């Protein structure tokens, strides 16, 4: 047993079998993949990586499922099951590519703006890549270390990551790792706040985990802990508004996305080979920036050359821009990343037929909006940022003029 000192959760215990997985080159690679892309351009402390986040999710997944089992008296939860859920938490981001979601954005640009023949699945591309990593590169280690008391641990992890559970055990694991309130979000809100030097993402995780139950195939929070869930949802919303969707953060993530597309045009692809994938990290992209336009390189490395239109695109104006997206894409193609239009979109909370946060109230399971006015009031976050390199300032005038036209539309 090893103890890892973590600035967010304190000591994290890591058994020998987990160490065997953590010590593989494909997992160690995550030490060199930034958690929040180029957010460090604005928040200098945000140099943390997917490696420590993955350890944190492993820890919280273990904690969440233990408390859920105790509160719900679940017969199928034993120590081996808890370890498998923790393993799914540990590996949930193993497929992330250089600069995390920024690389996924590059794939979207490559396909939909530049017309390249690339495979992309939006913000879930890292999940698809992660499935391959687990199946092709880590299965021998997982089978060796985890199959003694559990059948098909590799299949369990893959189905949990894919959100395609077949059994009650896999369904609970999926909800613990990926849900509105889960181990993933629980860790990144606290961790990203810590490294950004802000308090927006803090919530009472110690109280939250003690009031989780599993009822009727749903993870729910006991009613007296509803204020903690509201705190969690608000924390996430504030982090998106102030950190993840910071206009300058978005601008630089968009710039490096275009630089990555530039490299794709020169042959960069997601490696199929294990050794090549093990070095598929931020530094690999940075080391190849000599092959892209010098203006993009200087922006990514030295924060030089690009300007942002101070007024963001919001409300009805965003609808106008969206209606002319193809025209904007044409301009972006023409100027190869020197003209930037980058949209942000997130829904803090929503409810659908089988997708919601639930509250266990007096023996009855209710959707959160039936109890919480705060949850009911949360709205979609939408905006866009416009940026340009100083050498093409005149080419950005059309977008700026369109922004001026928006003044007649209202908010």
Automatic annotation (TrEMBL):
GO BP terms, alphabetized: dGTP catabolic process
Keyword Hydrolase applies: yes
A Pfam family reported for this protein in Swiss-Prot or TrEMBL: HD
HD domain boundaries: 50-189
Family matches, as Gene3D superfamilies: Hypothetical protein af1432 (1.10.3210.10)
Keyword match Kinase: no
GO MF annotation terms: dGTPase activity
InterPro entries: dGTPase-like, HD/PDEase_dom, HD_assoc_2, HD_domain
Keyword vocabulary terms for this entry: Hydrolase
PANTHER family found in the cross-reference section: DEOXYNUCLEOSIDE TRIPHOSPHATE TRIPHOSPHOHYDROLASE (PTHR11373), DEOXYNUCLEOSIDE TRIPHOSPHATE TRIPHOSPHOHYDROLASE SAMHD1 (PTHR11373:SF4)
Protein name per its UniProtKB record: HD domain-containing protein
Species per Swiss-Prot/TrEMBL record: Candidatus Aramenus sulfurataquae
């Amino acid at each position: 047993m090893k103890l890892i000192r973590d600035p967010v959760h304190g000591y994290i215990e890591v058994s020998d079998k987990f160490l065997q997985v953590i010590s593989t080159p494909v997992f160690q690679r995550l030490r060199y993949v930034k958690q929040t892309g180029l957010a460090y351009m604005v928040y200098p402390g945000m140099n943390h990586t997917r490696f420590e986040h993955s350890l944190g999710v492993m820890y919280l997944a273990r904690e969440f499922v233990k408390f859920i089992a105790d509160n719900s008296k679940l017969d199928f939860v034993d120590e081996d099951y808890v370890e498998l859920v923790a393993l799914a938490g540990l590996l949930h981001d193993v497929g992330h590519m250089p600069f995390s979601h920024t690389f996924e954005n590059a794939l979207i640009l490559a396909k939909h703006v530049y017309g390249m023949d690339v495979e992309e699945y939006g913000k879930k591309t890292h999940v698809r890549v992660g499935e391959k990593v687990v199946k092709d590169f880590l299965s021998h280690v997982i089978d060796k270390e985890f199959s003694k008391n559990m059948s098909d641990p590799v299949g369990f992890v893959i189905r949990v990551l894919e959100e395609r559970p077949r059994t009650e055990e896999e369904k609970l694991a999926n909800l613990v790792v990926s849900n509105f309130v889960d181990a993933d979000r629980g860790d990144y809100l606290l961790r990203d706040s810590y490294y950004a030097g802000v308090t927006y993402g803090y919530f009472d995780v110690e109280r939250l985990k003690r009031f989780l139950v599993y009822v009727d195939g749903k993870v729910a929070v006991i009613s007296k802990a509803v204020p903690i869930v509201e705190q969690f949802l608000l924390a996430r919303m504030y982090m998106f508004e102030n950190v993840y969707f910071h206009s300058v953060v978005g601008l630089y993530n968009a710039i490096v996305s275009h630089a990555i597309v530039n490299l794709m045009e020169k042959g960069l692809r997601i490696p199929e080979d294990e050794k090549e994938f093990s070095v598929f990290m931020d530094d690999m992209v940075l080391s190849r920036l000599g092959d892209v336009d010098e203006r993009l390189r200087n922006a990514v490395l030295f924060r030089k050359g690009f300007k942002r239109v101070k007024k963001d695109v919001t409300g009805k104006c965003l609808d106008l821009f969206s209606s002319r997206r193809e025209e904007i894409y044409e301009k972006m193609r023409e100027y190869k990343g020197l003209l930037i239009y980058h949209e942000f979109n997130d829904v803090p909370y929503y409810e659908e037929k089988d997708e919601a946060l639930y509250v266990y109230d007096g023996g009855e399971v209710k959707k959160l909006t039936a109890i919480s006015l705060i949850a009911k009031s949360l709205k979609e976050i939408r905006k866009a940022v416009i940026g340009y390199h100083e050498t093409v300032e005149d080419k950005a005038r059309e977008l700026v003029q369109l922004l001026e036209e928006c003044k007649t539309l209202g908010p």
